[in-house]
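Each field is set out underneath.
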Amino acid sequence: MFSKFILIVDDNPTSLALLSASLEDFGYAVKTASDGESALILLAYHRPSLILLDVTMPGISGFETCQRIKANPATRDVPLVFMTALCDVDNKSKGLALGAVDYLTKTFHQEEVIARVKIHLQMGELLQTLRQQNEQMAAEVVRREQAEAQLKIINQQLESRVKDGTDALTQATDHLQQAQDQVIQSEKFSTLGELVAGVAHEINNPVGCMTNNVNFMAEYGQSLLNHIALQQRIIASNDNLIQLADVEAIENHAEDIALDHITEDLPKLIESMAMSGDRIKAISQSLRTFARTDKTHKQAYDLHTGIDGTLLILRHRLKANGDRPEVIIHKQYGQLPKISCYPGQINQVFMNVLANAIDALEDRENDCQPPAISVETVLAGKQIEIKITDNAGGISETIKRRIFESQFTTKTADKGTGLGLSIAHKIVTENHSGQIECSSTTAAGTTFQITLPVSA
């Protein structure tokens, strides 16, 4: 069923056999190792799709084995899940800091193991796909630069023929538009590639909640079924005449199964699972809207949905990071009508502006006040104004004058291409007949104001 395999590393033969059998019964190919050294030898010749690694083992520990795996370029991207009987937060934090994606606590529930294995295999495949796409996008950027250089030469040659209105000029314009559209889409998928690990973590949390609650739901359900069966037996054996002893038996059984607790907790479990499902759905919808290529025709769209969806995708970046505390989001939403626009492109503008604000907050030197981003929307006549403001300390006038230039960036090469805000400017001004402006106060913060017409 699967061409790749799962590597299980555990010094306990019984645990190793049970876990292997469970995974194999579900159709997964499995390889095993009884200690860290054996696992490292096996990894020198084979690359698994997922590693389940015991923390406590003879010889080198699970943590040290994990360090060596993550230090090896050939295996560092393989998803790794620790297995442990330890439940303390320090051990879990240490494992996650070393690069593990999850924890399984012994003893195992087969349903939980299969659910977690399945989601991490899927996320691993998604990460691999996005890495390949990033490589393709990098090649596309090179091709785009070559195409732009070639188009520049063509345009210079065609300037003398403008008066004649030749077909060659129209063709060159079409090529240029295609190249620009490709740049927009390339930048969009590049952004998705950078965000996928954080989004995967945001999805993993509600998935974990749902898989954990399933076990409790099963226990509660079985207890309730047993209680109903007891009452049915009593009614049937007494011709519908219930004796005092029968009432006591029912009450004792209700006490044994903690019926009051089940009655109180079951709705909470259902509500928690429903909220988790809604969160996964919201993330999925936000990603789908952001990734769409909607250049054919405009649609009626709620801008608040776009802003909230973008903030949801960026939620992992808003959390506390190192010395920087959590970024506070202040929303001041006005009553807005839907506007005629390309939703995927508008969300790309929100993504670029908000991501830049978070980058600025991470680099700021002024820590006197908590990092914050405010988002304000207002209807002004037949236009909508969106103001996104950070308190990162502002930018200089020199930088502000060049901020929408293509390939201009103040970031290091690994953090920015210099295309994000220039693409945002093109989307707002050329594709939506709007305006985007930047204002900044030194030692205070920066505001991006986006103005869009309600209808095309």
Remarks:
- The chain has a mean pLDDT of 81.
- Residues 294-453 form a domain with the Heat Shock Protein 90 fold (CATH 3.30.565.10).
- The radius of gyration is 29 Å.
- Residues 167-237 form the longest helix (71 residues).
